Structure formats: C-alpha cells, structure tokens
Amino acid sequence: KARGMAGLTRANISIIATGLSLAALGTVWTPTGPRGIVPLACTLVASAGAMGGALLWALRWPSRVEAIWFAVAATNCVALIALVQHHAVVGMLMCTTFGATAGYIALFHTAPLMAFNFGVASLVGAVEAIRMAARFNIVAGLCAYLLVLLLNLGVPFGIQVVVHVLGTDAVRAERDQLTGLLNR
Fold first, then answer.
1. 68 with 113: CB under 8 angstroms?
2. Contact criterion met (CB below 8 Å) for 57 and 17
C-alpha cells in the first residue's frame, strides 16, 4: 500500500483467478474435458468458486481471514478442475496451476498454508501421474509428476527468497552502513 501497489496487486490476483475460472469453464467444451454429470458439476462449482475469488479481489482488499479462505478455495478449485478432466495430460497440465496459488501463498501467507497447497498439489499430481502412466507409460507419468513437484517447490521458494532479501535490505536501509547510526 505504501508503494502504491495495492490496486495493481488486487487486479493481478483478480485476473489470475478469472483466468482459472475461464480455463475451467472452457474445458467443458473440449473433447479432453469433463465427461458426465458429476465431473461437469464439479467443474462448474470450481469455476464459480474461482470467479467468486476474482470478484472478491476486484472489489476490495480482503481481510486476513478472507485471504486465507481464498487461498484454500483456490487450491481446492484447482484440485477439483484437475481431477475431473477426462484426459490425464490435461489433468496434469491443470496441476501446473498450483504454482500460481503457491506464489500467492508465498507472498501473503505462512508456511503451513504453503505446505497445504504443496500437499494437495502432490496428491493430485500423483493421481494424474498414475493416470498418465496407465495411458502412456510410467516414465511419462513420473516425468510429468516431477515437473509439477519442481514447479510447486521452485515458485514459492524463489518468492520467499526474494521477500527475505528485500526485507533484510529494508531493515539495513534504516541504518547508515558506515556509522551504524539511524538514517533520517
């Protein structure tokens, strides 16, 4: 807020959530998307949930509790969308979206919520990897799973490193490097 980034941040999060909603909705009309009434209903619920989160961020900065619920809902929506895809490759591709939720959580939330997101991503990725191995071969399933794991470890870790470095620089900026005295 102090740097004038609140509006841009809200807009970015809202756009990403809208993109998730539209991507989920778009799979309904593809040959690889959800088939059957239950997968279709799950896709529509997840799409609506993502759009609700997008609206929340578009209208205002959410409270701490709302932001946590948004992170949990976003993780669950991604899981639901991935699991109901008819084609395993599309389900695995959807698992890459956990990287976006991991990035959001790394910026604004705590390690337990990051662990929750990673746990869900790992579990859903494993299900999709098993489906891929059954359809193609075990190497295809393992390679895809490894990429999902690396993405969901690398993105939040990289963000946490940047946040830590910037936080350390901010603390150091309060003191003169030579004298150790407080700056104005």
1. yes
2. yes
Residue 16 corresponds to which tokens in the numbers above?
Answer: 């990403």
Task: Pick the more confident residue, 52 or 3.
Answer: 52
- Over residues 155-164, mean pLDDT: 73
How far is CA 18 from its chain centroid? 13
CB atoms closer than 10 angstroms to residue 129: 24
Distance CA 127, CA 59 (A): 36
Q: How many CB atoms lie within 10 A of CB 28?
A: 14
Residue 90 has which token pair? 């599309």
The Cα-based distances of 51 to 97, 98, 140 in angstroms read: 15, 17, 33
Nearest-CA neighbor of 49 among 75, 83, 86? Answer: 75
> pTM of the prediction?
0.82
Going by C-beta distance under 8 Å and a sequence separation of 6 or more, which residues neighbour residue 15? 54
Q: What's the first-to-final CA gap in the chain, in angstroms? A: 21
The two three-digit tokens of residue 108, written as one number? 């604004």
